[in-house]
Every structure is written in C-alpha cells, then in structure tokens.
Amino acid sequence: MAGKKINPLLKSGLEFGPIVAFFAAYLVLKDKVFTIGGTEYGGFILVTAGFIPLLILSTLVLWRLNGHLSKMQVVTLVLVVVFGGMSVWLNDDRFFKMKPTLIYLLFGGALSFGLLRGKSYLEDLMDAHLPLTKEGWMVLTRRLTGFFFALAVLNEAIWRTQSTEAWVYFKTFGLTAAVFLFFMTQGSLFKKYGLEQGGDQG
C-alpha cells in the first residue's frame, strides 16, 4: 500500500535525525560515567537509553504523516527496542552493538528464502518502485543478499575487535556509506534491466 506523499526533507530528518542525535550525544557523553540508583552507567549506555524513545517517536511521526511503515522500518525499530533495551537493562553495550548484525542477517535471510522459492522479495521489503524486469529484480536481490551477509560479518568484526568509539563511527558513517556505494555501483544493472516508464515486463 502506497503511503501519503510528505516533504522529502522532513522524511529524511525523521529517518536520519535519531542517528545524528545519537552520534552527537555520544561525542559529548562518551567519557562520562553517571551513577543512577547506585549503579554506574557509561555515556554509551545513557545515549542508547535516549536513542530508543527518540527512534520510537520519529517512527510514529513518520507513520502518522506517511500513512504506513516499511517492513524494514518496523523490524529495525523492534530490534532497537529489544537489544537497546537489553543493553540499558543489563548495563552491557554488546547487545546494542549486535543489533546491526541481526538486522542484516534477517534481511539477508528473508531475501535468501525468496530466492530459494524463485521469487524476489526485494521490492516489497524495501518499498522500492524501481522499474526493473523480473530478471533484473532477481539479479539485484542476489547481489543485495550477499551484501547484507557481508555487512553482518563486518559489523561483528568491528565491534568485537575495535573500540566502542570506532564502532560508533563505523555504525554512523561506514554502514551508511556502504549502502550508498552499493546502489551507486548498480548503475549498469539498472541500465540493462530497466523498463521504460509505463512499460511492461513481457
């Protein structure tokens, strides 16, 4: 179901604003320790605690304005609440750092399941409206599936071997840049399998 049209800048602000706020707050609080209820919490945990309601609020506003949410947005929100909440509740940042790994594994697994059935779930999963042939969707889905699994492995390698600060930079800029570059490099695919506006697939 198509959503209502909203201002692209407002949409981008609602989608990326919480991430930018998380990064900015982390830079301010990363070296601080807070004692709450007799328990010490590092700046990362406090920032995570603030990020969860901020993401919930921005997602609800986006849903209210747009009329719907993509499956990716819903799954991401659920995992942030669950794993972010576990990090705060248990005072352990590892759960929140594992969240991107699970997101990419879930999406990669969903796309793989579709491929095994000879179908592409990509358009529905991403709410994409790219004019591609059936073969084009299958090729793009195979590539994106491998890309998601690669990002899952990369996130695990970064958070397990690097500092929290390095992971925050990687999460904020590295993953975003990787996704952007992936689609930028698919130009030849879009050209080869693209459909003329209003054209058909057969």
UniProtKB/TrEMBL annotation:
Asked if the Swiss-Prot or TrEMBL record annotates the protein with the keyword Cell membrane, the reply is yes
Question: Quick one: where is this thing mainly located?
Answer: membrane
Species name: Thalassovita gelatinovora
Q: Where are the transmembrane segments?
A: 12-29, 41-62, 74-90, 102-118, 139-160, 166-184
The protein's role, per its UniProt record: Plays a role in cell envelope biogenesis, maintenance of cell envelope integrity and membrane homeostasis.
User: Quick one: a GO cellular component term?
Assistant: plasma membrane
The subcellular localization recorded is: Cell inner membrane
Which UniProt keywords are given for this protein, alphabetically ordered? Cell inner membrane, Cell membrane, Membrane, Transmembrane, Transmembrane helix
Q: Lineage in the entry?
A: Bacteria, Pseudomonadati, Pseudomonadota, Alphaproteobacteria, Rhodobacterales
Q: What family name appears in the similarity comment?
A: Belongs to the YciB family.
Q: What is this protein called?
A: Inner membrane-spanning protein YciB
